[in-house]
Amino acid sequence: MTDDTPSRGEEAVLQEYLDHFRGVFERQCADLDAEQLATRSVPPSTLSLLGLLRHLAAVEYSWWRRVMDRHLELPKMWGKDEHRDADFDGAVADDAVVAEAWAAWRAEVAYGREFQQSHPMDHLGQHDDGDLEMREVVVHLIEEYARHCGHADLLRERIDGRTGH
Questions:
Q1: Whose CB among 50, 101, 129, 146 lies 3.0–4.6 Å from 37's, allowing a Cys bridge?
Q2: At 40, is the secondary structure helix, strand, or coil?
Q3: What pLDDT digit, counting tens, does each position of 6-36 carry?
Q4: Matching InterPro entries, A to Z (predicted)?
Q5: Is 54 strand, coil or helix?
């Protein structure tokens, strides 16, 4: 950083990175129909763009609502209490499933953004393993999105050849 470059601060930088990867993921899924979104990678994997969309909605929900807002009693999204891979197994080529997944993801992203804007980075959430600062959760979400954007890039390339979103 040079002397003439203003420091934006930790919170702004972390939010920018998280929003960047959220946008990359959304663009990877753009303009695809239900069948394309539900296309699995390679057998026996259940990995698909729709599965990732459902998974990331559940991740946002869990970290923001359950952990940071301290509502661990909330049920996990997509029935994960009963079945660990419900995010992916329930990702079937159905327009209603796709609409539900997009609505859930958008609602949870909006909730996370609002929560982050209204709480300091040292706000403590409650996790099964103890308290966590919001900055830890934001860094984890950046890592989660970055990893899954790599998966999404490969999945999208398999579907229609598009890469580098």
A1: 50
A2: coil
A3: 668 999 999 999 999 999 999 999 999 999 9
A4: DinB/YfiT-like, MST-like
A5: helix
